[in-house]
Specification:
Layout lengths: L8 H22 L22 E7 L14 H4 L28 E4 L4 E4 L12 E8 L5 H10 L9 H9 L9 E4 L23 E3 L6 H10 L7 H21 L4 H16 L3 H4 L7 H6 L5 H18 L4 E6 L9 H25 L6 E6 L3 E7 L3 E5 L3 E7 L6 E3 L1 E2 L6 E3 L2 E2 H11 L9 E3 L2 E3 L15
Parallel strand pairs: 1-7, 1-8, 4-12, 4-15, 5-6, 5-7
Antiparallel strand pairs: 2-3, 4-11, 8-11, 9-10, 13-14, 16-17
Helix pairs in contact: 1-6, 6-7, 10-11
């Protein structure tokens, strides 16, 4: 009919509805700052929070608690002798030896007298700010399941990550930056599942800055690319609109594709980030003294120091949850002395610098800093001078954010194998983190697949003993 084509009602809706979707999306973005219905708009917590934000320092691989924060003098008496009780399931069942004392010296530090090994001389100067939990318990002896459980609460199913739940519950304070950023995460042992939003809307997923295999110098180019040199904002908006029109057309054809929806929102966020993100990553603007505090002047500490400094800059710009990853380095089944020494040297000064910097800026009081790996390591030897995986009782520490500083909580047995006092399962850890942020873990739920889900599922108790 005069060159015009006939469309069915279904085809017409598919052809034209994408324009309405784009209009709606743009309206949502323009009103994000003032519209409380925006997915990332700040929301009131369930009760008065003690912390406003989280910085999670993930030591991927599993640091040895009995060589870092859980001093066990009896190991020296039993060095080289068999474990005097039945050993639980380990990862490398056929390669387990006798007990091995810690190769490092422990000393008391600060007015609190925290026992910290010689692996962390810089962090030891922050002893009075640390809340060391020596009785953490998980359910998996393998990296994949243990890492998933630490990050998502489940070691078997794909679930929203802790950071996603936090942003879902509280929103974020800067609409031009992601609410949840993970810096140089590992692509192994769960990979993106560790920072995904799972069945939560895609707006709550973590935004990855590079990955563990990217060198620091190579990481800066994509961040600088956000400025899109040579393009005006209007040209960039037009380019994005055309791209999003195609994405929306695909989304309509597929009805609902969470990965595609996440990609659409990521493009929109990237556009908004162009004026905010580059400045947030410009650590060169910091004074020489601050850069030295984080160890950016030394090759062995510059990488993790950069991560920690960026984490502070993102936190003070309203990002709700930031994760820094030291990956994948702490899995010492052999060469414990050489490799744990190297690993600690890479992170010790940057972490101490972060704590001191946050404290000097008045941010530590409402920033919750968390340090730890997916599990600890066994008191029995493996591979000459290594240790196997141990999820039955290990240490993590937290600082700031409404905690009692300078204390130790919980205990393992005389050999550092099992948690025997004030056990803190990972569900309890998650419940406590949410509580510090003003969120009731039993009320922070999302309806999916016929029932309400939460980060702690049907478990979790808040560790009130460590709250200030």
């Amino acid at each position: 009919m005069n060159g015009e084509r006939l469309l069915s009602r279904r085809a017409a809706l598919r052809e034209y509805a994408c324009g309405f979707g784009l209009l709606g999306l743009r309206s949502l973005l323009e009103a994000a700052e003032s519209n409380p219905s925006s997915p990332l708009a700040p929301r009131k917590p369930h009760f008065e929070p003690r912390a406003r934000r989280v910085i999670f320092l993930f030591m991927h691989g599993g640091p040895s608690s009995i060589d870092t924060f859980d001093y066990k003098p009896r190991l020296a008496d039993y060095d080289g002798k068999p474990l005097p009780f039945k050993r639980p399931l380990t990862f490398a069942e056929g390669d387990v030896g006798n007990l091995m004392k810690s190769p490092w010296e422990f000393r008391r530090h600060g007015q609190s007298g925290q026992l910290i090994s010689s692996l962390f001389p810089h962090l030891a100067t922050c002893a009075d700010d640390l809340t060391v939990v020596k009785s953490v318990v998980g359910d998996s002896v393998a990296h994949g399941g243990a890492s998933l459980q630490l990050h998502t609460g489940s070691n078997t199913f794909t679930r929203p990550s802790m950071g996603s739940w936090v942003v879902y519950g509280l929103g974020t304070e800067n609409q031009n930056l992601p609410g949840y950023v993970t810096i140089k995460p590992s692509l192994a042992h769960g990979g993106a599942k560790n920072w995904s939003s799972g069945f939560l809307p895609a707006a709550y997923q973590g935004t990855a800055i590079g990955h563990a295999g990217v060198k620091l110098d190579d990481l800066k180019e994509p961040i600088e690319y956000l400025t899109r040199q040579g393009f005006t904002p209007e040209q960039q908006r037009f380019e994005l609109d055309m791209l999003q029109k195609l994405n929306r057309r695909h989304a309509l054809a597929r009805q609902y594709d969470p990965e595609l929806e996440g990609r659409i929102q990521a493009f929109e966020l990237a556009f908004r980030m162009q004026t905010t993100a580059p400045e947030a990553f410009e650590v060169e603007k910091e004074s020489a003294a601050v850069r030295k505090l984080y160890g950016l002047d030394r090759p062995e500490t510059s990488d993790f120091g950069w991560q920690c400094l960026v984490a502070r800059r993102l936190a003070e710009r309203g990002v709700r949850f930031v994760q820094c990853s030291h990956s994948y380095k702490w899995d010492q089944h052999s060469e414990l002395v050489r490799l744990h020494t190297r690993n600690a040297r890479e992170v010790d000064q940057p972490i101490a610098g972060l704590l001191k910097d946050l404290k000097a800026r008045g941010m530590l009081k409402d920033t919750l800093v968390i340090w730890g790996g997916e599990f600890g390591r066994t008191p029995v030897v493996q591979g000459g001078d290594g240790r196997d995986h141990n999820p039955y009782g290990y240490s993590m520490w937290m600082a700031g954010g409404g905690l009692k500083p300078g204390i130790s909580h919980g205990a393992t047995d005389d050999f550092g194998y099992y948690a025997v006092e004030d056990r803190m399962h990972l569900h309890d850890l998650h419940a406590t983190v949410l509580h510090l942020l003003g969120l009731d873990h039993e009320k922070l739920t999302y309806f999916y697949s016929g029932r309400y889900f939460r980060l702690t599922d049907v478990h979790g108790n808040v560790a009130h003993k460590i709250l200030a």
